[in-house]
Write a structure and sequence with these properties.
71% of the residues lie in helices and 0% in strands. By secondary structure, it is mainly α. It starts with a helix and ends in a 6-residue tail after the last helix. Bound molecules: protoporphyrin IX containing FE.
Length: 215
């Protein structure tokens, strides 16, 4: 195995960057509470993988979305399992982000120089909620439709620009096929990309500053 890795390394030069990535400064007394962020990240990877599989069958159009979701659950082999894994990973992702943030609060790890990491972390939570909200519409059934109708209508209460914002999010006055395409694009492209960038910044700062020593 060693000679295989040496062969790869002499061609790609991956050992050194790998070593630098894996070696990090850790506090003296480390507990399982420090794993909560890592669990959230593992769930994010699981969401990406199951989402990529779902996108092979899901059709984001007004006429096809509902039927394709049904087909995916009832006809595609293990489709029901991939759908359930995606859903449960999404719920647990939010739970673990919140638990991780609580760990950070209890250990008061938000204090300088980690305030920017706190901010990027909070933004990941916002993006995670937005991903959940946009994903909820995709099955395009009655529940999804009305939840989006009610959820988006709250935007209209924003002073001055509320109605413009509502029109922008829905792509028109009502929730329609345009909204579905808009939400699909946000769910599978824009939000995962933004999340990827935020996590890169988050991990870069953890690596640079080291993990705080707790209380
Ligand atoms: C997708 C969401 C997130 C992931 C995958 C993630 C991942 C991580 C990981 C792996 C660490 C290293 C240490 C640890 O796990 O405790 C960390 C540290 C940190 N995270 Fe997050 N995080 C996320 C969201 C958040 C949120 C919502 C906040 C706060 C609002 C936050 C604030 C911080 C801070 C301040 C640190 C440094 C902690 C220290 O040095 O002790 N993170 N994050």
């Amino acid at each position: 195995m060693d000679s295989f890795f040496n062969w790869i390394d002499s061609r790609f030069g991956i050992k050194e960057p790998h070593r630098r990535f894996l070696h990090r400064r850790l506090p003296e007394r480390i507990t399982y509470l420090y794993c909560l962020g890592g669990v959230a990240f593992t769930l994010f990877l699981c969401l990406l993988f199951t989402g990529m599989l779902l996108s092979l069958y899901y059709v984001p159009s007004e006429q096809e979305a509902f039927q394709s979701t049904l087909r995916l659950t009832k006809e595609v082999r293990l489709g029901w399992l991939i759908r359930s894994l995606h859903k449960w990973a999404a719920h647990l992702f939010i739970v673990f982000i919140i638990l991780h943030a609580l760990r950070v609060i209890v250990h008061r790890a938000y204090r300088p120089p980690r305030e920017l990491n706190w901010i990027t972390g909070t933004l990941t939570l916002v993006v995670a909620f937005a991903s959940g909200f946009t994903g909820y519409l995709l099955p395009w059934d009655q529940r999804a439709y009305w939840a989006t109708e009610v959820g988006t209508s709250m935007v209209a209460t924003v002073p001055l620009i509320g109605n413009h914002l509502l029109y922008l999010i829905r792509g028109g006055p009502d929730v329609s096929g345009v909204t579905l395409v808009r939400f699909y694009s946000l769910h599978v492209l824009w939000l995962p990309l933004i999340m990827g960038f935020l996590l890169w910044a988050h991990f870069h700062m953890v690596k640079h500053q080291g993990i705080s020593g707790g209380l």
